[in-house]
Specification:
It is built from 15 helices and 19 strands. The chain is an alpha/beta fold. The relative contact order is 0.15. It binds flavin-adenine dinucleotide (FAD) and iron/sulfur cluster.
């Protein structure tokens, strides 16, 4: 039993494929109609209020119940062009389904996410394109970052008749839909198919491999285009600031998650004993996914208590049912390493001091590991604005008003690079709100 036991093929390709299958199978026609019949079609529906994109949930569910699945999908996509992805990745237990009036001790909420998946899947599988462009407005907008925020903004602008050029640093568009969301939530190349659908409306060009900052500046974009939308997401990861943080065997969780999304799972090397440092959904995602690749022992260590964890109860349940051990009240103080790489982590127990701050108790323990993942958060770093007039910032993110306008005239922003919940559905809403505001700006009589 050697240290540094990191290798591919801990499970057979078939076992890995089975492990990465959907958490819940899609609803079939009968199941969808049966589930839709459970909806009480509330007036002033709380679920619609709780959905960040304001989807008319009773409206689309009623359409499913009457057999108009195509209409249901369009009703969803009109408000949320990534309704297919959101159906599978939204934390519904904290959004629409949490407030469903059937969510009581004796009953359970209507499965809104699965019904949304049923409707959007119906449309995509039939290759139906319900959107077309309004006559060309002669206006041209730059979108920086082709993640959910940028793509949602681009689609709405294109439908309204404006031309869009999206500048994307990575080789593929999609942002974290393509590179970050858990592979078992994004089956059947959902991200790529959704982009194909979005681009199907016409009028959107995506320039991949082009970065704001190194290839083009914000000043130039503002000069060349009629408006600019910034959807840069989080572009930096938080560091532990411990010795040995860069030795082999220590990874940023988001980098490895990207490999899980992009590489052949059967050939991806994984450790026998894995430690994950962090308590949010990214920590859960890496822990669950390496377990599904065959890691034998996976332990998540979080410095505060269960109630403080960023990961939802549902995500924690997924981790625990997949055999991940979650340990609270301990913080890493040293990454242990030999000449070849990480061998484990030394932790110190923690507690709340009388003044409410977190303090170490002085008592330590060590856990052995072949792989150590850092999952303590990401942030926005304003480097891409260097050399240009930059928008005002607010607590490390780009400051925007309710219409997602920045402090710079003609520049809007949305998604993870502005304040708010870091969720796909929130990024989509930001892009949509910004596009409507950009449209108003471009079509007002005083503009150019
Ligand atoms: C591991 C992980 C799991 C997650 N799981 C969930 C989940 O289950 N459910 C959920 O709702 N949310 C989840 N999220 C959050 C969700 O993915 C984000 O909130 C959402 O993707 C934000 O969209 P965005 O468009 O703002 O940013 P991003 O998706 O990050 O897109 C930003 C885009 O900008 C590009 N870019 C960056 N810098 C430049 C530059 N200088 N020039 C040009 N382009 C640039 C990037 O390459 C990227 O394509 C998860 C996040 C992570 C990290
Ligand atoms: S987009 Fe998300 S929050 Fe909104 S209705 Fe669909 S699953 Fe619920």
């Amino acid at each position: 039993m050697s240290a540094h036991d990191i290798r591919p093929g801990r499970l057979t390709p078939q076992q890995i494929a089975d492990n990465y299958d959907a958490l819940q199978p899609p609803l079939n026609d009968m199941q969808a109609i049966h589930e839709a019949a459970r909806c009480l079609f509330c007036f002033d529906a709380p679920c619609t209020e709780a959905c960040p994109t304001g989807i008319d949930i009773p409206g689309f569910i009623r359409m499913i119940s009457t057999g108009n699945t195509r209409g249901a999908a369009i009703r969803i996509l009109d408000e949320n062009i990534m309704g297919g992805t959101c159906a599978n990745v939204c934390p519904v237990e904290e959004l629409c389904e949490e407030v469903c009036v059937r969510n009581t001790a004796e009953d359970k909420p209507v499965e809104i996410g699965r019904l949304q998946d049923f409707a959007t899947r119906h449309l995509f599988e039939r290759g139906i394109q319900p959107y077309s462009r309004a006559p060309d407005s002669g206006r041209h907008v730059a979108v920086v970052g082709a993640g959910p925020a940028g793509l949602a903004c681009a689609h709405r602008l294109a439908v309204l008749g404006h031309r869009v050029t999206a500048i994307e640093a990575k080789p593929k568009a999609g942002g974290l839909n393509e590179y970050g969301l858990a592979a078992y939530k994004m089956l059947d190349e959902r991200a790529a198919k959704e982009i194909e659908f979005i681009l199907g409306v016409g009028g959107i060009e995506i320039q991949t491999g082009h970065a704001l900052g190194s290839d083009v500046s914000l000043d130039v974009l503002r000069e060349v285009y009629d408006a600019v939308f910034i959807g840069l997401g989080h572009n930096a990861v938080n560091a532990l600031r411990l010795d040995n943080e860069d030795v082999p065997g220590v990874y940023n969780a988001v980098d490895f998650i990207e490999r899980i999304r992009q590489e052949d799972l059967a050939t991806l090397p994984v450790g026998r004993r894995v430690l994950v440092i962090g308590g949010g959904n990214t920590a859960i995602d890496i822990a669950v996914q390496v377990k599904k690749l065959g890691a034998e022992y996976v332990t998540m260590v979080y410095r505060r208590g269960e109630a403080d964890m960023g990961a939802t109860w549902h995500e924690r349940e997924v981790a625990q049912t997949n055999g991940v051990l979650i340990k609270n009240w301990a913080k890493p103080v040293r990454i242990l390493a030999d000449g070849e790489g990480a061998t484990g982590v030394e932790f110190e127990y923690t507690r709340y001091a009388d003044d409410g701050t977190l303090e170490g108790t002085g008592e330590t323990f060590a856990l052995e590991a072949d792989m150590v993942f850092k999952a303590i958060g990401q942030h926005f770093e304003p480097g891409p604005f260097a050399g240009s007039e930059a928008p005002e910032m607010d607590r490390g993110r780009i400051a925007v008003d309710a219409l997602r306008r920045t402090s710079l005239p003609g520049v809007w922003a949305g998604g993870d690079c502005v304040a708010g919940q870091d969720l796909t559905v929130v990024a989509v809403q930001d892009g949509k709100v910004a596009a409507n505001s950009i449209h108003e700006f471009l079509t007002e009589p005083t503009h150019g």
